[in-house]
Amino acid sequence: MATITQEKIGPLHEKLSVKLEKTDYLPGFEKALKEYSKKANIPGFRPGKVPAGLIKKMYGPSLFMDEVLRSVDKEIVSYLDTNKVDIFAQPLPLENDLSKLDVSQPGDYDFHFEIGLKPDFKMLDLAKTDITGYNIDITDAMVTEEVERLQNRYGNMEDKETVEVDDNVVNVTFTETDADGNEVEEGIKKDNSLLVKYFAPAIRKELMGKKAEDSINIKLGGAFEEKELDFIAQDLGLNKDDAGTKDKTFKLTITKVGLLEKKELNEEFFTQLYPAGDVKTEEDFKARIKDEIYNYWASQSRNQIHDQLFHKLVDDTSIEFPEAFLKNWLTTQNNQAQEGEDKQPVKTSEEIEAEMPSFLNQLKWTLITEKIVTDNNLQVAPDEIRNFAKQQLFQYMGGAMGATDDQSWVNDYIDRMMRDRKYVDDAYNRLQSQKVFEWAETKIKPKATSISVEDFSKMVSEHQHHHH
Hints:
Elements: E1 3-10, E2 13-20, H1 22-39, H2 52-82, E3 92-93, E4 109-116, E5 132-136, H3 140-153, E6 156-159, E7 168-177, E8 189-195, H4 201-207, E9 215-219, H5 220-223, H6 226-235, E10 249-261, H7 267-273, H8 282-316, H9 323-339, H10 349-376, H11 382-396, H12 401-404, H13 408-418, H14 421-441, E11 447-451, H15 453-466
Parallel strand pairs: 5-11
Antiparallel strand pairs: 1-2, 2-4, 3-4, 6-10, 7-8, 7-10, 9-10
């Protein structure tokens, strides 16, 4: 009968020693030999009539090793389950010499493994934490700007010969260049459509009188104000906060010039945007726009509370880890990734060491969320995942939920998504994370603070930059 002993190596780092007697694996090995002889297809012998001795000689060593290792695995799983040993990942072999396995002389074998134990820890008392709730000021200027944006978006475009006013629209191609204006090989090349007034004053002046096929050279940071730069940088696949982004230079080639005729503010336009027909006057329209702006920034403020909660929980919760084991596990994963079909780049021990703080933070968050979920029974039901898939579908369709909710293709689509294991796992994790933050929100009393959109956006941007 197999026996397992457990001894301490280091903090939360233990050694499992498995002593396997031959009676633990021989019956299984002999059964495997018989099963293999029934299926073996060897020239000169009828199926099922291959002599047992020949089968043992040809396939015995591999079948023997498989059965011994299967028995070891079964004993470890049973031991961990019976003794309720909660571990990270899986046991790692400790210098086990498999060459000692001899099918011709079955005996007792010893195997050794290392395990990393999951720690017990005390949950942070969220009621005692300082959390700020930002009330973002929604100004009349923001409403006016959004109204004009919608008027421009749905307006009619009239072709023009040259750029004459700030309200001209220019279709342009951004082509990345070096400091001397030479095109960068494999550099950024992107088409865009912009109002002239989006450019900085000096560039607007330079664009006046230009027509299709004309071009100018710009430095990104000097061509746009801060707000427009953020939008342009994202469209070009850049981050405006990254070093060097503002210094990038581009050749700007005009492909078309137009003049936008804004959509008139009337009931026809309001109904186009809000088909329910409950927006009839300019006053109604602006009130609806203000509500939408408020809801958007309220959601951003709530996301910021979630971010504060994340950092409070991770930074202020003390959790010990079996770091030596986890480094060994990461090294093993790295080696296996190099040996697989889809080989990954080799990581040095220094790179693995450098990744440890980030890895441990992720692991800490996983343990915290697991504890919150378990202690508060925060389950995600299959119907919630189906509803999540349905909401995503209607968002993609522009929110026309009521008109299509009972159509059979909707259910067919959702059924197909529910068979996609990767999608279901992702949806489950997102919904469970949402439940964790919703639970955490019930434990806090945020200190309300008013803030402008500009200051809030700057704060969030600086925070993201700091944590990257």
